[in-house]
Amino acid sequence: MPEVVIVGAGFGGLAAAKALDRADVSVTIVDRHNYHTFQPLLYQVATAGLNAADVAYAVRGIFHRQNNVSFRQAQVVGVDWGTNTLGLDTGALAFDHLIVAAGASAAYFGIEGAAEHGFPLYALTDAIALRNHILERFEAADADPSLVDEGALCFVVVGGGPTGVEVAGALAELFAMVLSKDFRTLDLSKARIVLVEMADTLLQPFSPPSRRHARERLTEMGVEVRTGEAVVRVTPTQIELKSGEKLATHTLVWAAGVRANPLAEALGVPTSRAGRIVVGPDLRIEGHDNAFAIGDVAAITGRDGELLPMLAPVAMQSGRHAAREIARGRRKPFRYRDKGTMATIGRRAAVAELPLHIRLSGSPAWLSWLGLHLVMLMGFRNRLSVFLNWAWNYFTWDRGPRLIIDPSHEPSPSRE
Amino acid sequence: MPEVVIVGAGFGGLAAAKALDRADVSVTIVDRHNYHTFQPLLYQVATAGLNAADVAYAVRGIFHRQNNVSFRQAQVVGVDWGTNTLGLDTGALAFDHLIVAAGASAAYFGIEGAAEHGFPLYALTDAIALRNHILERFEAADADPSLVDEGALCFVVVGGGPTGVEVAGALAELFAMVLSKDFRTLDLSKARIVLVEMADTLLQPFSPPSRRHARERLTEMGVEVRTGEAVVRVTPTQIELKSGEKLATHTLVWAAGVRANPLAEALGVPTSRAGRIVVGPDLRIEGHDNAFAIGDVAAITGRDGELLPMLAPVAMQSGRHAAREIARGRRKPFRYRDKGTMATIGRRAAVAELPLHIRLSGSPAWLSWLGLHLVMLMGFRNRLSVFLNWAWNYFTWDRGPRLIIDPSHEPSPSRE
User: Fold this and answer.
1) Helices A362-376 & A380-396 angle (0-180, nearest 10)
2) What residues of A are in contact with residue B416 (Cβ under 8 Å)?
């Protein structure tokens, strides 16, 4: 039976594996984590709205009923195209067909200190690290209020796309709803959230009314929105902006740049802008007829000649396309069907732009956002848990899991 | 207003702080974590039955409505009894009254390799580390089945008290119910759980019928029970027993020895067996009229002249006693009221010994155990989440959070 190896258990990789359900192939999914991460909600883990486990689902559990899928937890280190063998940190894996679905990672554009001191939001551990850090800054400021003037409670979010807008809004609600009650003696009026965006507007791909709505709501919530501004230098206690302004801060959330997973380069295939793998119209990797790249890691061109955005629907549709190419031995061009895009800002505040020029904002957009994300979540258990957490947060104005769980600060045994 | 400092946010410390609700004092709780850990359920986190956040509750959240309590996240490094000042890693804290409620930690009795390679179960991070390790061993064995013969799937639990029995039973159910479905190509009949206990019987403080019930149920579930046996030497891949037998294993769960938190010695006060602080009948620390030790960290003598066991009811009752001594300026001896003891083994299997010689086993004991632990959990949100997780696990034979979340394996930013 032909062996299909899928690198990455994100939206694209899982969609491809599921689409191979009835195909006469054996599928192996490789991922460095043993779980699928629901990236759109990582910002809620980072801001103590959801548990880490709510946005992660064991890959093996997803395929209990699909017998042709197996899983390997490993890091991909390279590929031998001559023998069709994938190199893993734990060994090697032969394939007849390869689907590269390795996703995206943060791009820092060479900005001094950004990679060292910025908090990205791609992995579950990123979200936990940011949550720990935010809560630790409040604990530190509470123990020593002089730290407030040194920037302990100034949180800078770079990037005015959906992730940046969502993080900034969620931080504002966390501070106003919960931390103000947790830290009664801290003067939270000194806590700042600064959202920095290089372009002149937030949420660039959205329509002008949606952009305005986002900006107004964030400003009402106390977020300082700085458009047409950029970060030029980062130290552990300061961020220098293009305008020359210096912000005393201990926290930089990096939601600005995105690029393909560096794995793309390790495969020795041609890459394009942002390190994305060059693919043909049928998503095959240039020069390799038995290999596909899909989702964020692939430079897929849309009908307008532009690269498709790094969004879950692109990953899922391209994953299913690659699976069908393999299952049916065909060569058809991939066509992306735009499902629209959404961003949430806070309680009953969101923007959504759907096909047929349908534009929502406020409560309708927020409810659509909630519903869509619940449906997309993997597994009934996670859906129920997220739903109950949201209901709890909404009605009690509380946030549950504001825990600083940091094993790196603890002694731990050393075993095999 | 007199300043009461409580060291430790466990059952005892929280009970003391709550009992000072109406007292005319200012209370500061110091803990190295920003959350209370519900230790009795840590073993369920370690065996992927519950989320980490289910058994932890932010200390600040517990006291939203009690204005005389504040919190400080810090590690205690010492005390200056001359100036009544507690030394913290982040500064100093003056007190008029001190309540030491620092709890217990693992005792390794100098057994070679046990401290380095054993997994204890006192902190939330311990439970996460053990869960990660168990799942990693299965992933490793799946990728390279030769590891099975080298002991990757042999799990040794040392200590036949309630914790050891609970871990062994939960592991057996995890393997049978979930991992057998996750790892279809692994021969799980080769997975072993060995429970080692030095005494001739499991659950020593329980009555003979309860002990027999526990042993029979565990054996039915596939646990190899070795009583009258001890560990003499531990390496990363092997455990040597007193009988001379050598077990190839990568995993030692250390549920054998318990001692007072080493902090007891850092305070420069007299300690007794297992490092517990010597206290008078009113729980005052010998030689320090303004300082109390309560719960696991204190050597409290019961009516029979024996030291009271390290159990949550002892901690809570002694914490409330110390609080009343301070609030009322009185000196009364502490009297412990025995509430009984319980241990769970698995689905519908538990033993409970209550006052008035009431003895339960099987489903009635299990239901009592479930109900009691739900009631004791802090916060409605956690109770609901644990209840739903238990219901889910029970009816679906599934376990949700079998996730390997290990930030130490990931790159992470360095900030202040």
Assistant:
1) 150
2) 137, 152, 236-237, 250
Domain at B3-106+259-328, CATH homologous superfamily:
FAD/NAD(P)-binding domain (3.50.50.60)
Are residues B35 and A184, on separate chains, in Cβ contact within 8 Å? Answer: no
State the Cα–Cα distance between residues B242 and B233, nearest whole angstrom.
Answer: 9
Those residues of chain B that have pLDDT short of 70 are 400, 408-416
Domains A3-106+259-328 and A109-256 share a fold: yes
- Suggest the residue from B57, B60, B139, B149 to mutate for an interface test with chain A (most A CBs closer than 10 A): B60
**A162-173 helix and A208-220 helix, angle to the nearest 10 degrees:** 20
Give CA–CA dist B92/B78, Å, rounded. Answer: 10
At B95, list the tokens: 């007190």
User: What is the model's pTM?
Assistant: 0.93
**If phi over 0 gives left and psi between -120 and 50 gives alpha, with beta otherwise, what is residue A215?**
alpha
Distance from the B408 Cα atom to the nearest Cα atom in chain A, whole angstroms? 6
Domain B108-256: give its CATH code: 3.50.50.100
The DSSP code sequence of B315-341 is HHHHHHHHHHHHHHT-----------E
Q: Cα separation of A236 and A152, whole Å? A: 11
How many CB atoms lie under 10 A from the CB of residue A339? Answer: 15
User: Where along chain A do its domains lie?
Assistant: 3-106+259-328, 109-256
Structure confidence at residue A408 (pLDDT): 66
CATH of A109-256, one of 3.30.450.20, 1.10.3720.10, 3.40.50.2000, 3.50.50.100: 3.50.50.100
d(CA B206, CA B357): 11
Task: Decide: B185 and A69 in contact? Cβ < 8 Å.
Answer: no
* pLDDT score at A410: 60
pLDDT at B397: 76
Q: Which residues pair with A35 in a beta bridge?
A: A58
Average pLDDT over residues A226-232: 97
- Note whether A143 contacts B413, CB cutoff 8 Å: no
Distance in angstroms (rounded) separating the CA atoms of residues B293 and B384: 33
How far apart (Å, rounded) are the C-alpha atoms in residues A210 and A175? Answer: 25
Q: Which residue(s) pair with B233 in the sheet?
A: B112, B240
- Among candidate residues B136, B139, B150, B166, the one labeled active-site is B166
